[in-house]
Fold this sequence. Notes:
It comes from Pararge aegeria aegeria. This protein has helices spanning 2-14, 37-54, 59-80. By secondary structure, the chain is an all-alpha fold.
Amino acid sequence: MNSMLSAEQAKRRKYENLDSSFIFVPFGVETLGPWGPEARALFKELSKRVIESTGDPRAGSYLGQRISLAIQRGNAASILGTVPRCGGLRTF
């Protein structure tokens, strides 16, 4: 978790010169699960707002599932990007 905090701090430093009309929140998520403290706080706030606007108490859960799927797809793309392309699978 300490690495997650330092990753969020590094992102904050990287974007410290961003125009003040933007709100920047570093969204640190480890590959296998844990979210950084700022990512969790942002997610809680977004979930609350989605639930309020839709009236569906499950909306926050759906948002979490969508984010988790996006992370999994990104992980899969990263892995597949390291595999050499071939004409197909061979069976031995």
